[in-house]
Amino acid sequence: MPKALVVADEVDERLWTGAVRSLHVDLVVGAGDLPYDYLEFLAGSLDVPCVFVPGNHDPDLSGYTRYGGLSMKDGFPTEWPGPAGGINADGRVVDVAGLRIAGLGGSIRYNEGPNQWTQRQQSRRARGLEWRARWRRRRDGREVDVLLTHSPPLHLGDRDDPPHRGFACLHRTIATLRPRWLLHGHIHPHGEPVPDRVVGTTRVRNVVGHRIMEFPR
């Protein structure tokens, strides 16, 4: 039963200390809009892998390739701006700590900042992710356990203001992949309780701040 420290959007200063070592988890999962050195600290202090997707306030990580300890962009060695050792799951399907995680970062486009997509652009990206997950499932029979996104699905925990609207395509992605969980950030609850939403067999959870979650197989 893998256990994860799931974080998004809001730094918890209590975790940015040696006290975090008292947590017993198998991985760190980041749903975006957190300083990358915060993710590095959490994963390094806990000595566990870190899987994340970028949010709309994070640096653009597109175009980087990594082989072993070498990072490349446009054919040249360069320093990767993401968290050291972190696994960027944006647009990918990754197997970490016994979990299969499919990732789709970013928010709806509302200005010229990085990691922002129109509904059509994100739908195209989601179709690519769905294809990769189906190919992996045909190869080894394993389903996706967690769909990790920065933004929620449209009308499932999003807001009416333009920067915080969810993505319509995620409804199709949920129906296609049937993950047990969709974990997202981006929507700050400001102290209000945020109930999980359920779509078919998928539970949608806002993880802004931090959560300790277990994932029964």
Question: Which features would summarize this protein structure in a list?
Answer:
6-stranded mixed sheet, alpha/beta, 5-stranded mixed sheet, 217 residues, globular
Instruction: State mean pLDDT (0 to 100 scale).
Output: 95
Helix content: 10-25%
Q: Mind telling me the C-alpha Rg?
A: 16 Å
* Large-scale geometry: globular
| Low-confidence blocks of residues | none
What is the strand tally?
A: 16
Q: Biggest sheet, open or closed, and with what strands and sense?
A: 6 strands, mixed
Oligomerization status of the protein chains = single chain
Strand fraction equals 25-35%
Number of helices: 3
Helix and strand content put the structural class at alpha/beta
**Order of helix and strand elements from N to C terminus:** EEHEEEEEEEEEHEHEEEE
Question: Termini distance?
Answer: 6 Å
Protein architecture, described:
With 217 residues, this protein is of the alpha/beta class. 19% of the residues lie in helices and 28% in strands. The strands form 4 sheets. The chain has a 6-stranded mixed sheet with strand order 8-9-12-13-15-14. A 5-stranded mixed sheet has the order 7-3-2-1-16, covered by helices on one side. The chain has a 3-stranded antiparallel sheet with strand order 4-5-6, with no helix packed on it. A hairpin with a 2-residue loop joins strand 4 and strand 5. The longest helix is centred in the middle third of the chain and has 22 residues. The chain is globular. The model has no long low-confidence stretch (mean pLDDT 95).
